Amino acid sequence: MSSSENRPLSGAIFEESTVLTVRELSRMCAVEERHIVEYVEEGVLNVAEVSADEWHFSGSALRRTRLALRLERDLELNLAGVALALQLIEELERLRGELGRSELGTRRPEADSL
Amino acid sequence: MEFKDYYKVMGVARDATEAQIKQAYRKLARKYHPDVSKEKNAEAHFKEVGEAYEVLKSPEKRAAYDQLGPGHAAGEDFRPPPDFGAGFEFSGAGAGNASYSDFFDSLFGAQARAGSSDPRGAFRAGRGEDHHAKVLLDLDASLQGGARTFTLRVPEIDAEGRLVSKERVLNVQVPKGILSGQNIRLAGQGARAPGQGARAPDEGTAGDLFIEVEFQPHALYRVDGRDLYLELPVTPWEAALGATVKTPTPTGAVDLKIPAGSHAGSKLRLKGRGIPASPAGDFYVVLEIALPPADDEKSKAAYAAMARALPFNPRAGIGA
Which end of chain B has a smaller Cβ tally under 10 Å, C or N? Predict the structure, then answer.
C-alpha cells in the first residue's frame, strides 16, 4: 500500500454548502428528473428557492429523496403514501427528541429497592 | 450454502396466491423496514423478506424455486441441481443494489440483477454513478474532527458483468461539526465512469461517494440536532444554596455556576458549546438532585435535624 492511500480522504459536509438543481438531485439519487418533479408536486420535497427559472433544493433534500425512494420501492407506496409516511416519520422524530429532553433530570434511581 | 425456505420467511403456504404473497410482503416490509422499524435486527429481517419476495412475486422464479421441491429444510446444506432453471427465462429483478444471499445468487445469478432496470427508470449518465453509504460515528469525531476508518460494503460490477459486493476500507477525515443525518461527500470516490470514450463533457468522470453519518450513543452527552445535553448530579444544598461545580463540556471542564433555588430538571445553557457546526449548537446542563445516603448515625442525625428544622410538605400540591 502506498503512503498516499494512508492519508485520510477529506470531503466537506455536503448539506452545509450545497444548493441542488433537479438535475443534480436526480443524478445523485439515480432517478429520472421527472420523478423529482413529481415529488415536488406531491409535497414530498420542498423547493428552497427558484432562480433563473430553475428549482433549487437545500442539501438536506438528498437524504429526504433517498428516504422517499426507499419507502416507495420497499413498501410499494404511492406518492401520497410516501408524503404521509415522511410527515409521520418527522413527527415521530420530533416527539422522540421531546421525550428525551423531558426525561432528563427526572431519572429514577437505578437501584430502586422495594 | 444454506437452503432458504422463502415460504417460511414470508409466513405463507406453498400454494399461496400472488395476492396473499403481496399482502404478506407489505405487512412484513412495514414491520421491518429500517427507516420505520424499531425492531431488533430490522435490517437483516427486511433483507430476508425482500429476497423471498423477489423470488415469490415473479411467476418464473417461483416456478423454478418450486421445482427444487418441498423436501428441503431451511438452513440445510444445499447445492442447486445442474439443470436448475432450464426452460425458464428470468427477467431483471429490479432490486436496486440490494445484496442477496449466496443461495439466491446461485439460483438466479447475480447477472439477472446487474443488468436490470428499475421500474422508475434508472438514470444513465456519462459519468460514474454516485454511491451512498451509512456509517456509525462517535460523537467525538464531530466535536474534535479527526480521521476515522470506515469499512463499507460497496456493490460493484465485476469483469463478467456480475453485481458483487466488495469490502472497502476508507480512511476519512471527518469534518468538524458534522451532524447526524448529514453526508460527507468524497469527490470521485463513487463508481468509475462507464466506458472509455469521452464524448459527453462529464464522461469519464468517476461518481462521488456520500457517507451519511449517524452518531453512536455517547457516554455523557445526549445529542439533539446540534445541541448537547448533559445530566449533572448535584447535592440538595448545591441546588438550594447555589454553588460553583466542575462540569465536563466538549471543549474541556468548566466551572459552572448553579444558581440558588435550582431544582431537579433545571436547565442551564452554555451558548455555543454544543456541536461546533455553523452555527454552533448549545450545551445544556440538566440538573439531577443526588441524595446522600443515610447509612450511618451521623448522616441519619443530619436528615433528622433537617426534618425538624424544615416544615416542608412536598405533597401539599396533591392534597395529601
Answer: C
